[in-house]
Amino acid sequence: MTALSAVPRLRRGVKAAYDETRDSHVVLFPEGVLVLNETAAAVIGLCDGRTSVEGIARRLAEDFDGVEVDDVAELVARLVARRVVDVDG
Amino acid sequence: MADAPFGLLAELTHRCPLKCGYCSNPLELIGRADELDTAQWRAVFDQARALGVLQVHLSGGEPLARKDLPELVRHASGLGCYVNLVTSGLGLTPERLADLRGVDHVQLSVQDAESASANRIAGVRAFDHKIKAAEVIRDAGLPLTVNVVLHRLNLDHVGEIVALAERMGADRLELANTQYYGWALRNRAALLPTREQLARAGEVVAAAQARSAMEIVYVIADYHEAHPKPCMHGWGARQLTVAPNGDVLPCPAAGVIEGLGVENVKDRALADIWHSSPAFNAFRGFDWMQEPCRTCARRELDFGGCRCQAFQLTGDAAATDPVCSLSPHRGVVDLILAGGPASVEHRAVVR
Ligand SMILES: C[S@@+](CC[C@H](N)C(=O)[O-])C[C@H]1O[C@@H](n2cnc3c(N)ncnc32)[C@H](O)[C@@H]1O
Ligand code: SF4
Ligand code: SF4
């Protein structure tokens, strides 16, 4: 799991986009495409290189019910494993 | 109805200044006169995007051989696609790359770790150009994947190849054992590695993967494996290929399968071809499978392997990929592996 103080950002060469044909947020990277659910899309949108995992959870809690910081950390860890995001700290 | 594809492999041309003996392109290369023109390629990209394609791989041959490449890049990028330029690097000057705004990622092929051997494999003096091309790509701030096709002639240098890719500043390194299609199939006897070579290289790669900051992707040598590769993640499932002349293929090698019923973008809409052409529906899903695949627990992992390989080695495109240890035809592959080495013939060049 990613540390709560870690600051994620999209890796070089990764693009976040909206796909009208699938009505979904997606991330595009050299080896493929990831179709995101609503939560993942919101997290990706906050992987800006300034906001920590804890900060992302706090921001998400403003818009969604039942946001758990551990769930955010786990999702970020999965995105790191897919080489979609990098973390500092 | 089939799910929409994510990727389009656009083979813009078969023209190429290199003559790699391992090239997977077909023996009968498509000449310049038969290539789709600029407007036709733009229409292909429009239709692909409308169908759901988000990733466009501009490849060939050498995509830089197309004078209209800047316009094609702009068009695909303007549609919102992720644009991957797949190139030998020959002709990639700072000026040319500056004209290619909209490229999101570059995949650069390299033949070996040092100049003499690399040039021997490429059939031309390409190595120094590639070193410069990598510099140009990095200076432009673009992410770089170095792709090296592995075979008997370079597998023993895989450690040096990793070091070279690191010096080139690659973010990713693809070490892909040769897939035997096109020119590679013709040159198979010269390219097939020994089991010992593969074992040694496998160890070097594993150590490098554990140590390197680069992502290192290793594509296995399927002839030496007990199970086939999950070819294309299933036929007509995620990606389509458009050949230089507009033929629409489920995979780049599918042209070899006789009687497949390949259709062309000049005759029919891309979405119709994807959803209802005989070529795309022939091996979709699992219903086409014979035994042993039909009742095998691994069929959702490997989809029965590669249809082109099944056709090439058994004459039946619906057979189990003969590299599979459960295939009744596995003996064909073992016989090939037992054969002695031969010399390489370079790929033909078309103009
Ligand atoms: C056919 S090439 C065309 C683009 C460009 N000429 C180049 O070589 O990069 C596309 C990609 O396929 C790889 N390739 C070629 N022949 C192959 C084979 N027999 N098996 C696996 N990969 C192969 C190349 O290294 C390259 O990365
Ligand atoms: S693999 Fe070699 S010969 Fe084939 S298209 Fe690429 S550079 Fe040209
Ligand atoms: S029998 Fe078919 S599905 Fe089973 S492992 Fe072999 S190729 Fe894959």
Q: Key terms for this structure?
A:
heterodimer, A: 89 residues, alpha+beta, three-stranded antiparallel β-sheet, 3 helices, 5 strands, 36% helix, 27% strand, globular, B: 351 residues, alpha/beta, 14 helices, 10 strands, 15% strand, binds iron/sulfur cluster
Overall, the morphology of chain B is globular
CATH topology of chain A: Arc Repressor Mutant, subunit A
Count of separate DSSP helical elements of chain A: 3
Number of domains of chain A: 1
SSE ordering of chain B: EHEHEHEHHEHEHHHEEEEHHHHH
Mean pLDDT of chain A comes to 91
In order across it, which strands form the biggest sheet of chain B?
Answer: 7-6-5-4-3-2-1-8-9-10
What oligomeric state is this?
heterodimer
Which band does the percent of strand residues of chain A land in?
Answer: 25-35%
The count of β-strands of chain A is 5
Radius of gyration of chain A: 12 Å
Ions and ligands: S-adenosylmethionine, iron/sulfur cluster
